[in-house]
């Protein structure tokens, strides 16, 4: 017997006997604890106790008749009471004490009132209030020694092994134990085992019980195990760190447990009335047994999986669908899922209707990261848009898996508008409720998504003028304004020829402002956002470094020491553009970097074209020379024209066959875009296609093109230096002629001498000049053929059909066709020679061998 049970019994006995004063219940409890007897193993029959009482009784027949009557009524604790009375009859000292006490009580009552005899009323009649008060007075007159002896004997009886009792007594004792165990309290014959980890609780039943009763008890005990599992789950998961979804689930389970406790209370009431048996208890416990089993199974699964938020809802949703054939079980799981999904759907509603995340326990599928929108102009990636809000896969409920991307986009769209200072709320906002019919909340999410897409798209297109901004960028980065660039390059040519360290950026900004105001770009409302940036590398190095990212050559390219000397402003020059929120979501630093690479590539081609045009202008001086001395210039002029034709055709291809058509495609796509993600996709696709078709994403083509441009620049430098030396010689001769004698004969002699001297000098230098032009010509022709060959390969093998237009433009008269076909034949022959010859068939061998 537990200490709590002893305390309860002593208090109840003291209250029934109306004992006041003394040491109270604690004193008796201490004595009982000290005098606890070991477990009684001897078999004592209630029949012997009944016989002993009959022997001491003056009316044994009446006693036995009354005993049989009470036994037939199945009165609770009848046999223990008979055993107590038999013990009282054997204790002579106690009998004398009781007789003395009774005698004193009768004498005192005789002195105070008239002499009357008190007899116990018949058991078939009820005691009156006066008789009950008299009985209480008599019992209260007992001294504390008698009371202590009664309590000690009662404890001995209660610790008497239940297995030695009759079946009816065992059943009644087990019923009381079961009612306690069903609510988590240990009984006398049924005790709970300690739980290790996440195991289910087990119970030990008194082995001395009758086998039939023990079997029936074991059938009922799983309900107590389920109750223990559910109770532990509810108490643990109610803690704040397990999230609102688990809180809602435990609240729903607690509601169901109240109904279970009401059932146990009703069973206890039947037991006190003597109307409950083990069979009836087994019958009444059947309906809640299935409910408790499902609740315990869900609790164990959630506990083992450490589920929170969306994972808990996924588990409940799957259980609901698994019980499709069992309507009651499915209804129970549906009730739990609806209750648990309420806080999750509240977070979802705030996200898809207002763009706000209120997720204190990190349960929602969308997670917010601390990123600042002001850094979009600095980061060379789409980090803000892609990583400010991300989806956590294990937090997505299985019934929202298909809609996860739209849920993420809906809140992101509304959040962008909110961060611009506008409060937006979806006009079609309705409460989202869990249901087995997914169409209901799917339609609500679709409506919220369409509204958010429309709001943000209109905000960017109309209020922030996204298309106009893109057109402004196109004017400058894709050289849409021709007069502006001619004027700007004329103004900044001398400044950009200097080394980068010697350039004053403020002077360049002033020249840019002047060029903008004095050209058609003055009509652009966003021209003030255009800025100048001097890059640390030239365009070819920058492109090669970008292409080497995530490749084997990445470390080698990044760690390579710069081979070129300090580059000039022309090589480092680039435009930059100021873009503010929320347009920076579309025109971010990554997009601007692509624009810059396209611009620097075209700007480099423009620079080479201007150098070749300057050579053409200086070559006009060759008309002043005699016909015999100009024969060495023919090859140089032809090479210059081929180079100029190459550069101009490359520019035409990039600007009018790549960028302009792709721009119109993007512009048409933006008109039909339904959300901001489509706008991002179309804009990124436009830039990617331009980079690819302009040969900026292929390292082989880029390197060949770079060598061609370098050869053109070297040729122009050589021609310019040669023209300058020729001009200096001519000026020196003219100066000598003007300073000589005024005699006509002397001047004629000087003229003749000058012509002869000039012709002689030309003849002397002609061999070196002609050889240099020959080297430039051969290098340019071989690299151009290599470029055309690579372009033909990529246009056929990689289906890059737009690149074949370059071949048609550069080989417009079929000049390179024969050479290209010859190179193709040689390449196929080399590939054939590399292939191993086919093996001859093995000789036929005889089977006998």
Radius of gyration, in angstroms, nearest whole number: 52 Å
Euclidean distance between termini CA atoms: 97 Å
Q: Could you name the ranges where pLDDT drops below 50 across 5 or more consecutive residues?
A: 38-44, 112-125, 141-145, 151-159, 740-766, 844-849
Q: Compute the number of strand runs.
A: 6
Shape: rod-shaped
Structural class: mainly alpha
Number of helices in the DSSP assignment: 31
Strand ordering within the main sheet: 1-2
Major pleated sheet: 2 strands, antiparallel
Q: How would you describe what is shown here?
A:
This protein has 849 residues and is mostly helical. Helices cover 66% and strands 3% of the residues. It is built from 31 helices and 6 strands. It has helices at residues 3-17, 24-34, 46-56, 60-72, 78-90, 92-112, 129-140, 144-158, 167-181, 211-237, 243-272, 278-284, 286-304, 310-322, 327-354, 383-387, 404-419, 439-463, 466-477, 482-496, 505-517, 539-547, 554-559, 569-572, 589-618, 633-672, 676-693, 699-739, 744-797, 804-810, 817-834; strands at 190-192, 203-205, 366-368, 389-391, 530-534, 573-577. The strands form 3 sheets. A two-stranded antiparallel sheet has the order 1-2. The chain is rod-shaped and about 165 Å long. The two termini are 97 Å apart. Residues 38-44, 112-125, 141-145, 151-159, 740-766 and 844-849 have low confidence and may be disordered.
Question: What topology does this entry show?
Answer:
Layout: H1 3-17, H2 24-34, H3 46-56, H4 60-72, H5 78-90, H6 92-112, H7 129-140, H8 144-158, H9 167-181, E1 190-192, E2 203-205, H10 211-237, H11 243-272, H12 278-284, H13 286-304, H14 310-322, H15 327-354, E3 366-368, H16 383-387, E4 389-391, H17 404-419, H18 439-463, H19 466-477, H20 482-496, H21 505-517, E5 530-534, H22 539-547, H23 554-559, H24 569-572, E6 573-577, H25 589-618, H26 633-672, H27 676-693, H28 699-739, H29 744-797, H30 804-810, H31 817-834
Antiparallel strand pairs: 1-2, 3-4, 5-6
Helix pairs in contact: 1-2, 3-4, 3-5, 5-8, 9-10, 9-11, 10-11, 10-12, 10-13, 11-15, 14-15, 15-17, 17-18, 20-21, 22-25, 22-28, 25-26, 25-27, 25-28, 26-27, 26-28, 26-29, 26-30, 28-29, 29-30
Family: Belongs to the TUBGCP family.
Domain Gamma tubulin complex component C-terminal: 466-816
Subcellular location: Cytoplasm, Cytoskeleton, Microtubule organizing center, Centrosome
């Amino acid at each position: 017997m537990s200490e709590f049970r002893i305390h309860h019994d002593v208090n109840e006995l003291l209250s029934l006997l109306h004992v006041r004063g003394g040491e109270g219940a604690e004193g008796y409890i201490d004595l009982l604890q000290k005098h606890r007897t070991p477990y009684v193993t001897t078999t004592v029959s209630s029949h012997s106790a009944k016989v002993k009482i009959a022997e001491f009784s003056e009316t044994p027949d009446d006693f036995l008749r009354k005993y049989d009557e009470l036994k037939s009524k199945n009165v609770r604790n009848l046999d223990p009471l008979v055993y107590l009375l038999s013990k009282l009859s054997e204790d002579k000292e106690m009998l004398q004490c009781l007789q003395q006490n009774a005698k004193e009580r009768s004498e005192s009552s005789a002195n105070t009132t008239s002499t009357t005899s008190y007899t116990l009323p018949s058991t078939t009649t009820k005691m009156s209030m006066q008789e009950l008060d008299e009985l209480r007075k008599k019992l209260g007159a007992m001294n504390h020694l008698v009371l202590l002896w009664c309590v000690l004997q009662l404890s001995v009886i209660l610790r008497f092994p239940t297995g030695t009792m009759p079946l009816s007594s065992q059943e009644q004792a087990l019923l009381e134990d079961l009612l306690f165990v069903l609510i988590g309290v240990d009984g006398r014959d049924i005790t709970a085992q300690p739980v290790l980890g996440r195991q289910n609780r087990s119970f030990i039943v008194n082995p001395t019980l009758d086998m039939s009763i023990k079997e029936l008890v074991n059938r009922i005990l799983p309900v107590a195990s389920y109750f223990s599992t559910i109770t532990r789950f509810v108490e643990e998961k109610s803690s704040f760190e397990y999230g609102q979804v688990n809180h809602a689930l435990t609240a729903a389970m607690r509601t169901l447990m109240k109904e279970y406790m009401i059932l146990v209370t009703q069973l206890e009431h039947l037991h006190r009335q003597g109307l409950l048996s083990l069979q009836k208890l087994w019958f009444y416990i059947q309906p809640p047994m299935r409910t408790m089993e499902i609740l315990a199974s869900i609790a164990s699964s959630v506990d083992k999986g450490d589920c929170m938020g969306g994972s808990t809802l996924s588990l409940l949703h799957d259980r609901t669908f698994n019980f499709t054939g069992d309507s009651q079980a499915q209804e129970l799981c549906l009730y739990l899922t609806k209750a648990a999904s309420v806080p999750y759907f509240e977070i979802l509603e705030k996200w898809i209707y207002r763009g706000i995340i209120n997720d204190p326990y990190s349960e929602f599928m969308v997670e917010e990261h601390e990123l600042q929108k002001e850094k979009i102009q600095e980061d060379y990636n789409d980090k803000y848009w892609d990583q400010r809000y991300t989806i956590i896969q294990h937090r997505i409920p299985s019934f929202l898996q298909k809609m996860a991307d739209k849920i993420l986009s809906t809140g992101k769209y509304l959040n962008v508008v909110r961060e611009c200072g506008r409060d937006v709320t979806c006009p079609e906002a309705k409460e989202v409720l869990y249901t087995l019919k997914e169409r209901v909340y799917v339609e609500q999410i679709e409506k919220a998504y369409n509204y958010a897409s429309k709001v943000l798209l209109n905000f960017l297109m109309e209020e922030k003028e996204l298309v106009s901004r893109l057109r402004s960028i196109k004017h400058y980065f894709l050289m849409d304004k021709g007069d502006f660039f001619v004027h700007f390059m004329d103004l900044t040519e001398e400044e950009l020829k200097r080394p980068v360290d010697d350039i004053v950026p403020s002077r360049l900004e002033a020249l840019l402002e002047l060029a903008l105001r004095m050209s058609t770009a003055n009509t652009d409302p966003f021209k003030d956002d255009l800025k100048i940036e001097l890059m640390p590398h030239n365009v070819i190095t920058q492109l090669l470094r970008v292409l080497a990212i995530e490749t084997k050559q990445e470390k080698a390219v990044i760690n390579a020491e710069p081979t070129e000397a300090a580059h000039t402003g022309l090589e480092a020059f680039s435009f930059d553009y100021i873009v503010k929120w929320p347009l920076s979501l579309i025109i971010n630093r990554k997009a601007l970097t692509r624009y810059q690479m396209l611009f620097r590539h075209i700007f480099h081609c423009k620079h080479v074209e201007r150098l070749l045009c300057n050579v053409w202008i200086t070559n006009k001086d060759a008309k002043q020379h005699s016909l015999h001395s100009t024969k060495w210039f023919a090859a140089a002029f032809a090479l210059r024209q081929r180079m100029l034709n190459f550069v101009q055709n490359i520019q035409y291809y990039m600007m009018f066959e790549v960028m302009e058509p792709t721009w119109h495609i993007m512009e048409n796509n933006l008109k039909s875009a339904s959300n901001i993600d489509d706008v991002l996709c179309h804009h990124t696709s436009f830039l990617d296609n331009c980079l690819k078709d302009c040969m900026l994403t292929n390292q082989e083509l880029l390197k060949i093109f770079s060598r061609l441009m370098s050869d053109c620049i070297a040729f122009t430098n050589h021609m310019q230096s040669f023209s300058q030396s020729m001009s200096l010689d001519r000026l020196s001769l003219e100066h000598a002629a003007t300073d000589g004698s005024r005699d006509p004969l002397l001047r004629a002699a000087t003229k003749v001498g000058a012509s002869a001297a000039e012709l002689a000098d030309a003849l002397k230098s002609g061999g070196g000049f002609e050889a240099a032009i020959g080297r430039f010509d051969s290098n340019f022709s071989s690299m151009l053929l290599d470029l055309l060959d690579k372009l033909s390969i990529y246009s056929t093998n990689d289906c890059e059909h737009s690149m074949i237009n370059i071949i048609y433009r550069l080989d417009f008269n079929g000049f390179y066709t024969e050479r290209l076909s010859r190179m193709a034949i040689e390449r196929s022959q080399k590939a054939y020679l590399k292939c191993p010859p086919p093996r001859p068939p093995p000789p036929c061998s005889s089977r006998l061998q």
